[in-house]
Amino acid sequence: MKLQGVELRRITMPLVAPFRTSFGTEHERDVLLLRAVTDGAEGWGECVAMAEPLYSSEYADAAADVLRRFLLPALSRHQESARRPGGPGGIAASDVGHALAPIKGHRMSKAALEMAVLDAELRTLGRSFAGELGAVVDRVPSGVSVGIHDTIPALLDAVDGYLSDGYQRIKLKIEPGWDVEPVRAVRERFGDGVLLQVDANTAYTLGDARHLARLDPFDLLLIEQPLEEEDVLGHAELARRIQTPVCLDESIVSAQTAAAAITLGACSIINIKPGRVGGYLEARRIHDLAVAHGVAVWCGGMLETGLGRAANAALAALPGFTLPGDISGSDRFYRTDITEPFVLDDGHIAVPAGPGLGVAPLPDLLDKFTTSTEWVSVG
Ligand code: OSB
Ligand code: MG
Fold this sequence. Notes:
- By secondary structure, this protein is of the alpha/beta class.
- The chain has 2 domains: 3-125 and 360-377, Enolase-like, N-terminal domain (Enolase-like, domain 1, 2-Layer Sandwich); 131-350, Alpha-Beta Barrel (TIM Barrel).
- The protein is built from 12 helices and 13 strands.
- It has helices spanning 60-82, 93-100, 107-125, 129-133, 152-165, 180-190, 209-212, 232-241, 255-264, 280-293, 306-316, 363-369; strands at 3-21, 24-38, 42-47, 139-141, 143-146, 169-173, 196-199, 223-224, 246-248, 269-272, 296-299, 348-350, 370-377.
- It has a 7-stranded parallel β-sheet with strand order 5-6-7-8-9-10-11. Strands 3-2-1-13 form a 4-stranded antiparallel β-sheet. The chain has a two-stranded antiparallel ribbon with strand order 4-12.
- Helix 9 links the parallel strand 9 and strand 10.
- Helix 1 (60-82) crosses helix 3.
- The chain is globular.
- Residues 199, 201, 224-225, 249, 271, 300 line the site of magnesium ion (MG).
């Protein structure tokens, strides 16, 4: 396959309601989309970097910068060398990771580029993301991430609405001052049958271990990323001091860091976000590693549009994804999605079966949300 160029497109999508986490409050989602143009089909990539570097060091303007200045030129050079006489010719999605490896970090940008090339390749071949990744089911249970609210009654109203929608699992965002009481209130109101977990997005320190142990009686599925990203040893120590299983999100940026965290006892569950780990192919390697170690995984979310949501649903259909993911219906975050919306059916999201992502942006909606476009040609 010959990659001719990539369009970098920025869109801004309003959220149905503000989404508050321990690191900030989002009112809209500023997304960088990639459209890869090849001699076969066009492919779409979604970069999950947020507008500001608060969840991780990456942010959307930096992603666009590193793509145009370093990643796309590196892929272009790779493609040129492959096209020399005797070379394999063109480019394959499975080459992208190696071609970009000399550039350090920037995993969300690399993931978006690999996703766009993979989508173009699979559309050309008439194969789906789900088939390519190794999906074993055609629908996945849907969990929802519930932001920090101003009051407990407001939180209970929100959770009530999601449970009525059919969501299979509730994740409460927590921070110091908003942890034990909201969890207790949700358990008291909705009972022990609800699958319930919490996500701190690095808001605590090991000194909070005794406080976090107060969550033990509530039978949570897991506590996600209580400590800072680089504190893998701290998570291993915390895991010994609390009964709630520790799950890592921010700390797991590759299969290698996943292997280290598992070996050190820092987590018994992993949230796999393809953007955070450099792409869907690395995400699958982490899945395989976790299965081999008996560690459960689930698919995280980053307020994706229908494009990223489609690919996440395909990934979550792999056999090791034994816990519901943050793969909600499109209307959890957006009144209008840029693709046909994902709609909950009996608490599940259907895994797209068509070529590539199986969904594509609807041109009028895409244009409506677009704030800028830029064409970068590749060799
Ligand atoms: O930590 O899982 C997280 C959203 C943005 C950044 C980080 C996280 C989240 C979520 C929302 O929890 C997940 C979703 O897309 O539903
Ligand atoms: Mg998280």
